[in-house]
Each structure stands twice: as C-alpha cells, then as structure tokens.
Amino acid sequence: MRRYLPSLSALLAFESAGRHASFTKAAEDLSITQSGVSRQIGNLEVFLGTRLFERIGSRIVLTDAGSAYLQEVSKSLDHIEQASIDTVRGRKLDEALMVCAHPTLATRWLAPRLQGFMTAHPGVMIEVTTATQEINFDTTRIDMAILRGRGSWKDAVSYELFPEELAVVAAPKLLPRGVALQHLDFDQIPTLQNASRADLWLTWLRRTGLPHSGAIRGPRLPHSEMLISAAVSGLGLAVVPVQYVEAELRRGDLWLPFGPPVASEDSYWLVHSERGSDRPATMQFKSWLLRQARKSHNRQPQG
After folding, report:
1. By CB neighbour count within 10 A (0-12 exposed, 13-18 middle, 19+ buried), where does 164 fall?
2. Pairing state of beta strands 144-149 and 97-101?
3. Which residue ranges form the domains of the chain, and what is each CATH number?
4. What is the chain's mean pLDDT, rounded?
5. End-to-end alpha-carbon separation of the chain, Å?
6. Which of 10, 20, 167, 211 could bond to 25 as cystine, CB 3.0-4.6 Å?
7. Half-sphere exposure of 234 (CA within 13 A, CB side)
8. What confidence tens digit (pLDDT) does each residue in 224-244 have?
9. Which residues in the chain land under pLDDT 50?
C-alpha cells in the first residue's frame, strides 16, 4: 500500500517555520521565497485536514495540533538526517567511542595527541565531548571520561594519568626572563584569577610556601582557556596546570618566573563504569592514553 505521507518539502517548510515561529525566517533558512513556504504549509494543512498555524496580529503561532505534530516531525527529520550521515560515514554514530574531558584539557592536552591514536587505529571513530565532574555512565553514551579529582567516582573505575601540577606563568613582556623573584607582592604585580577555580592562587601559595604580601586581585576570567590567552597577552600572572601550557612554554610565549610547577592535591584520571567494557576500541584507547600520560609527565618543564 502507498504510504500516507506528505511531501518532504512540505515537512521541511513546516518544521523550519515552527522552529523559527516565522515564515520569513523559514524562507531564509530554506533559501526559498516566503510565498513558497506559505504554499508548502498550506498544502500540508490540506493534506492533513487541520490547521497547523494561526495568525495573531503579525505573528504566527502553532495550534495545539501543529505543536504536537512539530515535535514528531522534528524527531523524524533528525532520524533521517542521522541515517543519511551514517550512510555517508559508512557506520553509525553510536558506534563511535565517546570520550569526555574537561574543555581546556581536551583542547590543549588531548587533541594534539589524538592523531597518534587515529594513525595506529584507523578503524576506531572517536567522538570527544566536554565533561563535568559528575558523570553518569548509565544515562549517557559516554564510554570513558578524563576527570580531575582524587580518584573516587561513584560506580566507576579510575586510573591515574598524571598528577596535576600548578605553575605561575608570565609573558616575557610582563616579566623579562631571568628575573629572580623570591617574594610576590600582589599590590605591585598584576595577577589574573580563574573564576571556575577560585582557590588556585591559594593552593599554589600553600604548596610553594613563597613569601607574599598584598591582596590577591585582578580580572576574574571564566575558564583556563581565557586565562592563558590573557597571560600570553601580558595582562597578568596566572596560576595554571602546567599541562595546559606546554605549547606556550615551548614557544617562549610564557615562562615560569617562580620556578618549577608544584603538585596540587588533584590528579587527572581516566574513568569508566565499574561494569567496564571489553570493546576492543575501549581497551585500545585506554592503553594508548595511559602511555601518553606517562610520556607527558616525564617531559614536564622544570623551570
């Protein structure tokens, strides 16, 4: 029997108009005329025998039937789109190994190393997403997570990758190389603060025992990525995990005016569900990541 289906063009016009609550924006989205959108939706309403939109002044509003239909149509179009992408890829997206990590760690430590894994294991598709401290392996597609902490997560197994090491970094334009500082005066040298980790300066001071004076102040920036960019520009001193600034230290964009990094009380861990996984891709990635972590820790800068 012939399927009871409207045209795909009509469904695309309806979904876009419903999503934007505008025929005009739907026309821009689909690169057709506004009258074309209106005609497609009119044909769809005739096909279904019900109104999908109502006009209230200059606005269009979904009817109850239109709102319910939009939810189902959007899901179906998403499925069609995903099936099309999977066909182009030659595999399903949910076959990918899903790895999550803190955003700056993923950008600055994991991403530069991934080429090595992909070269060694060309058949494994990796999807990287950003992580929070709370990971629920039962309600997400996440296979493995790279997290900072003390190694204890509920219903999970963890493997230490490397201890977090904190260092004060400075741009040469702020503090010329070779300047030996045995005391830190916060009232004299501009400093930067990480709003997402407000205790970094206090942790570093406690671990180094460096004499200091004045009040810790300076711009508060939302995350490590912005903090590092500001430090490179010479805006102030910053406390950062040294693993995040490997490239800047190699290039000489930043240096360590107060000497080698010091260990915080945290480490970075590879975490997965207690049930584990015997997927070859999971085991391959875990072994590779542990090797990379050992190499990285052995090459940490010392001053």
Report:
1. buried
2. parallel
3. 8-89 (1.10.10.10), 95-303 (3.40.190.290)
4. 89
5. 76
6. 20
7. 6
8. 999 999 999 999 999 999 999
9. none
